[in-house]
Design brief:
This protein is an alpha+beta fold and 143 residues long. It is 41% helix and 16% strand.
Length: 143
């Protein structure tokens, strides 16, 4: 029998030692459904009207980020954006600095870069994670 997304999200929380709360499940559901990095404000706009406040949201985001279930992304909008981490599907972003359009980059240019950086480093023996965000102008804004 195939599990629902809610059951998969509950399993994910339990696997990381986090309490399965309705608010955390709803947060994961929003991030999974929209499939692009979202600001806390955008997440709240998609939240059901149950009185959730921004402090509760940030606490949930902090816990999920610490557990590597959610990733904080800096898209240079003046605030943090968040996206669901999909194991085995590491990706980066192209961001239009004019209109804010975001496109996922398939594949990862960082794997070779990590090896090169480590060979040149005199103080580091390993890299845990990396982030590449590319900023430019989309075709629509360039036209």
């Amino acid at each position: 029998m195939r599990k629902s997304k809610k059951e998969k999200h509950a399993d994910l929380l339990r696997a990381h030692g986090l309490k399965m709360t309705p608010k955390r499940l709803q947060l994961l559901s929003i991030l999974a459904r929209i499939k692009r990095p979202l600001s806390a404000h955008e997440i709240l706009k998609n939240w059901s009207q149950d009185g959730t406040d921004v402090v509760t949201l940030y606490r949930a985001l902090e816990a999920l980020t610490a557990a590597s279930i959610v990733r904080r992304v800096n898209l240079q909008h003046g605030h943090a954006d968040y996206e669901l981490v999909t194991p085995g599907k590491h990706h980066h972003h192209l961001v239009c600095t004019d209109c804010g359009t975001i496109e996922n980059i398939k594949g990862c240019p960082g794997d070779r870069t990590e090896k090169s950086v480590l060979r040149k480093s005199t103080r580091f023996s390993s890299i845990r994670e990396h982030s590449f965000e590319f900023f430019g102008t989309c075709r629509a804004c360039a036209a």
